[in-house]
Amino acid sequence: MEGELGRLYQRWSETLTQALAHIEAYIDFSEDDNVEEEVLSQVDTTVRALEQEIGAHLQDGRRGELLRQGVHAVIAGPPNVGKSSLLNLL
Predict the structure, then answer these.
(1) Tally of domains in the chain
(2) Which residue segment(s) compose the domain that 72 sits in?
(3) Cβ atoms 39, 25 nearer than 8 A
(4) HSE-CB for 41 with a 13 A CA cutoff
(5) Between the ranges 23-37, 40-54, 62-76, where is the mean pLDDT highest?
(6) Distance from C-alpha of 32 to C-alpha of 44, rounded to nearest angstrom
(7) Rg for the chain (alpha carbons), in Å?
(8) At how many degrees (to 10) do helices 39-59 and 4-29 cross?
(9) pLDDT: is 85 or 29 the higher one?
């Protein structure tokens, strides 16, 4: 898919990371009035929209297959080149 799926997952990751940052900022700085009260509602709206998008993606039989079933891969090579180390890292 020419990296389309990877870009989609990267966007989801960035959305969740940003939502987490907003929540942490609210928790850490809400007393200082540096973070607005509406941050929590914005995060809630963003995460709910992302949840619906992921759900729709999983229902798409063609595109959600890798996410549901994972990727089948073979790690092959000569002895003692780090295949087990790579697998353990993954």
Answers:
(1) 1
(2) 4-88
(3) yes
(4) 3
(5) 40-54
(6) 22
(7) 19
(8) 160
(9) 85
